[in-house]
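Lab notebook, bench 4. The sequencing result for the construct came back, and we need a structural model before the next group meeting so we can plan mutations. Quick request posted to the team channel:

Model the 3D structure of this chain.
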Amino acid sequence: MANLSQTLPKAWTLFAKNKKLLVLAVLIELLFVFSLVYVHYTFFLPTTDAALKAGKVMQEALTDLPESEVYQLDSLLADNPEFMASYYVLLENILYFLLSCLLLGIVFKGLLWWLANGCVKKTDLRKYWLKFAGLSVFWFFMFMLALLLYGWLTGGSATILPVTSSTTASVLFIVLLAVILYFAQVSFALAAESNTFKNTFLLGIQKRRVLVFTVNLLVTFVALTLPLNWLTTLPLLSLAIAILISFPALHFARIHMVVAWNDKNLRRTAY
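Done. Here's the predicted structure in token form:
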């Protein structure tokens, strides 16, 4: 089990020592958030009409369909031209949104993880960024495979993505996404090292590493949810909390990941 009494103080010392990098990290986080908001307004809001039309057709189909035949809803909707027209508009915009998030993640998250690695040791930006981009594309591909597998398990092959799904399939999908997210974060923490892909799995399965990630997950959850409490009522307060608390907390969590996963004293595998 990873010694948090060693990794946390070391990460905090590096976090406090590199104040200039912290300011830069906060600015990058702001640009990332504003870019995501722009992408959201570009690809999600225009699909509202299509979503309403698709929902109306689906509700009408459910009304006419006996409860014992709900499993046939996917295939019935696939034969409905009105539903499929709206559905493909939604699907197209979702794809554009995901690809945009991938590109934004490579640009901004790549910089943020490079800064976190730079707090621990000197890291070449170009080499790290290229490796980060490759890892991001790989994990995006795994996410898309998980999404297609989810559709296949729920019988959504006719509409690519499922219209209805079982609880078991949904739970399995969430667990699979959590596993992908976990190993993706591990790979980003190790991206400045050699044999990154190999050690992502060798080190990622160690219980002591999982404990570090659990602590980071708690920090990340609090950091992300805290500003949301006043987002609709006091947006300026939410922005201030994000800048003063959330973004620094996320920066610290990344530094802690890098410290823990690159600590030679915690390793069993040599590079």
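Residues 227 and 234 are 10 Å apart (CA to CA).
Will bring this to the meeting.
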